[in-house]
Amino acid sequence: MTTFAENLATFPSIDHLSGIDIQDAAGQTVHHIPAAPGKLGSLRLYYALAEKFANRLDGKAATQGLEWFAEHTADAEAHPGKHPNIDLLKQIIDNKQTLHIAPLKKQ
């Protein structure tokens, strides 16, 4: 099994992003990941999901995201609330949701 760090090294650059919004069907932002210290790994992973799944965040994309989070997924399961970006992926699977990933370009 690959680690999160190994997966991260394969993801596209996020240098051009200020963050990512996760939006519901009405276009309302339900989750935000900023380009900030401590969040860059999650931002990069979600951007990779956006690229791979045409900005669609559904059960298939969320399952891929949990695989890419690797060892952090088990930690999130053991400590609910500690990893909100992983919790969101689990919620999408559990509730059979389809959301939209909206990358935010730097101004």
Q: What's the structural blueprint in terms of helices and strands?
A:
Blueprint lengths: L3 H5 L8 E7 L5 E6 L5 H13 L3 E2 L1 H11 L1 H8 L5 H11 L4 E7 L2
Antiparallel strand pairs: 1-2, 1-4, 3-4
SSE string, helices as H and strands as E? HEEHEHHHE
Shape: globular
Q: Stretches where pLDDT falls below 50 for ≥5 residues? A: none
CATH class: Alpha Beta
- CATH topology: the name is Alpha-Beta Plaits
How does this structure look, described?
The structure is a single chain. The radius of gyration is 13 Å and the shape is globular. A four-stranded antiparallel beta sheet has the order 2-1-4-3. Helix 2 (40-52) packs across helix 3. 45% of the residues lie in helices and 21% in strands. It has five helices and four strands; from the N terminus they run αββαβαααβ. It has one domain (4-105): Alpha-Beta Plaits. It has 107 residues and is of the alpha+beta class. A hairpin with a 5-residue loop joins strand 1 (17-23) and strand 2. The N and C termini lie far apart (38 Å). This is RNA polymerase subunit sigma-32. It comes from Eikenella longinqua. Pfam families: DUF2322.
Descriptive terms for the model:
Alpha-Beta Plaits; alpha+beta; 107 residues; four-stranded antiparallel β-sheet
Brief sketch in words of this structure:
With 107 residues, this protein is of the alpha+beta class.
